[in-house]
Write a structure and sequence with these properties.
The chain contains 2 helices and 24 strands. By secondary structure, it is mainly beta. The strands form 5 sheets. Strands 1-3-4-11-6-9-12 form a 7-stranded mixed sheet, with no helix packed on it. A 7-stranded antiparallel sheet has the order 2-21-18-23-15-14-13. Strands 5-10-7-8 form a 4-stranded antiparallel sheet, with no helix packed on it.
């Protein structure tokens, strides 16, 4: 079963007047991972799409999506898939990729139908592409890893880069994930914006009762949402994206826009936030 929800772009002036439910309705993706279903959220932020595919031991195929008006979803798009569950496979363009938890698969433009099988829980990210790059499976061991932060500031973390210029080529899509060390809770602090790229966060690896307090909004007009495991935030170019969690967690970051420069950030120091 395929379900697609469309999210239109929100101007920052509009976001200032939103209550909690309106913020959640527009920026939080709550129910993407359901057994036997593919659930996509098609956004008007750089036409970025996020979603989940849970074959639950069976098989699910993502092919035509009416919202793109193309013969196949990937006819003019590229895709990044992260397995956040058990062992599974993804088949695309006649190639079967075995994916363990944490592995990332890049599929280039024009790949065709994509079939998900096994016990994996597959997080889907996709954006328009202008050139076909080679599809590639990047395992956890093959990622580019950087440790940042300090225990003293509660933000010691390991960043793993997968679809990234240091690892491989893509058109627009940049993807990786960040895991917090035990005892650290803050991700991405100091906060930043990047007007050149939108971003999506998927929070993952959390206990059922845990939550992340996700901060968003303009630096001088911040808002917040409480986010549970396997829920995603769609972050506009004008918004900060930071947060603090209860206990151990990982967040998958994925971006698309004018460049693929991960370091292109306009930092906002804590004293500047309101």
């Amino acid at each position: 079963m395929l379900n697609v929800e469309t999210r239109h772009a929100i101007h920052p002036d509009h976001a200032k007047g939103m209550d909690t439910q309106a913020l959640r309705d527009n920026f939080l993706c709550e129910s993407m991972f359901k057994d036997g279903e593919i659930n996509l959220v098609y956004t008007h932020y750089d036409r970025f799409t996020v979603g989940g595919a849970v074959p639950a031991g069976g098989s699910l195929t993502l092919d035509k999506v009416a919202e793109t008006r193309t013969e196949t979803f990937l006819e003019r798009r590229e895709m990044g898939v992260v397995n956040i569950g058990g062992s599974g496979t993804v088949e695309a363009d006649g190639v079967v990729y075995n994916m363990e938890q944490g592995d990332v698969l890049y599929l280039g433009m024009g790949t065709g139908a994509v079939t998900f099988k096994g016990d994996g829980r597959f997080y889907i990210t996709s954006c328009p592409a202008h050139q076909t790059y080679e599809s590639r499976l990047v395992t956890v061991e093959q990622s580019n890893q950087v440790t940042m932060g300090e225990a003293a500031t509660s933000n010691k973390r390991t960043i793993k880069m997968f679809i990234h210029p240091l690892v491989m080529q893509s058109c627009q899509l940049v993807l990786g994930y960040t895991s917090l060390e035990e005892g650290s809770v803050w991700n991405t602090m100091p906060a930043h914006v990047h007007d050149r790229r939108m971003e999506a966060y998927l929070y993952w690896g959390m206990d059922e009762e845990s939550r992340v307090l996700h901060l968003m909004g303009e630096p001088q007009e911040t808002r917040h949402m409480f986010v549970a495991n396997e829920q995603a935030i769609v972050s506009p170019t004008w918004s900060i994206h930071s947060g603090a969690g209860i206990g151990k967690y990982t967040f998958i970051w994925a971006m698309a826009g004018d460049n693929v420069d991960y370091t292109d950030m306009d930092f906002v120091q804590p004293a500047e936030l309101r």
